[in-house]
């Protein structure tokens, strides 16, 4: 059984192991984080924790029974009541409904714990797995994503909440 946990500093070793182990897998469908991310992982984690403490976002990890990280799920608060969702799951659990179930759980937390009315997510056209996750989780496409927001790739914005038909 896995558990969705709010990101904490003590997640650092397992989170870094997750990122390193899945780097090539992630790079096949989304932009690689680059060597700088891994070289300065502690600083990046501290920045996310500071954002979370300041109320600028809510960051979660999906933790397996053995303490390993199976996924990370981020809510970045972009305006009052609205957040952008980002997520990635380990290759070992991909295609098993883990991302969809966890996105659903996180969207419930978004409303109940963070007072969010709308959650948005953008995915590139080259990432059909992410599109499928969002659709199964109840998101609907609401328009094109600016390629500048998608590391130069064409994509689509999806939304859950007011204006999405849900």
Can you describe what's shown?
This protein has 166 residues and is of the alpha+beta class. 34% of the residues lie in helices and 30% in strands. It is built from six helices and seven strands, in the order E-H-H-H-H-E-E-E-H-E-H-E-E. The chain has a seven-stranded mixed sheet with strand order 1-2-3-4-5-7-6, with helices on both faces. Strand 3 and strand 4 (82-89) form a beta hairpin. It starts with a strand and ends in a 6-residue tail after the last strand. The mean pLDDT is 92.
Task: Write a concise keyword list for the protein shown above.
166 residues, alpha+beta, seven-stranded mixed β-sheet, 6 helices, globular
How do the strands and helices of this protein lay out in sequence?
Layout lengths: L2 E4 L5 H10 L1 H5 L7 H5 L1 H13 L3 E7 L5 E11 L2 E8 L8 H15 L5 E7 L3 H9 L3 E6 L9 E6 L6
Q: Sheet with the most strands?
A: 7 strands, mixed
Number of helices: 6
- Beta content comes to 25-35%
Q: What is the N-to-C order of secondary-structure elements (H for helix, E for strand)?
A: EHHHHEEEHEHEE
Gyration radius, in Å: 15 Å
Poorly predicted runs of 5 or more residues: none
Large-scale geometry = globular
Mean pLDDT rating: 92
Helix content: 25-40%
Q: Strand sequence of the main sheet, in spatial order?
A: 1-2-3-4-5-7-6
Quaternary state reads single chain
Number of strands: 7
Task: Report, as a whole number of angstroms, the end-to-end distance.
Answer: 29 Å
User: Class by helix and strand content?
Assistant: alpha+beta
């Amino acid at each position: 059984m896995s558990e969705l946990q709010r990101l904490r500093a003590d997640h650092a070793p397992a989170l870094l192991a997750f990122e390193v182990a899945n780097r090539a897998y992630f790079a096949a469908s989304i932009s690689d984080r680059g060597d700088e991310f891994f070289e300065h992982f502690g600083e990046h984690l501290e920045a996310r924790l500071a954002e979370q403490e300041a109320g600028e976002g809510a960051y979660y990890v999906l933790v397996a029974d053995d303490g390993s990280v199976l996924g990370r799920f981020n809510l970045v608060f972009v305006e009052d009541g609205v957040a952008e969702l980002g997520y990635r799951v380990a290759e070992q659990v991909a295609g098993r409904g883990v991302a969809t179930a966890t996105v659903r759980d996180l969207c419930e937390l978004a409303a109940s714990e963070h007072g969010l009315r709308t959650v948005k997510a953008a995915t590139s056209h080259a990432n059909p797995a992410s599109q499928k996750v969002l659709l199964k989780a109840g998101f609907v496409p609401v328009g094109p994503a600016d390629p500048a927001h998608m590391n130069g790739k064409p994509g689509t914005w999806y939304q859950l909440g007011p204006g999405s038909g849900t």
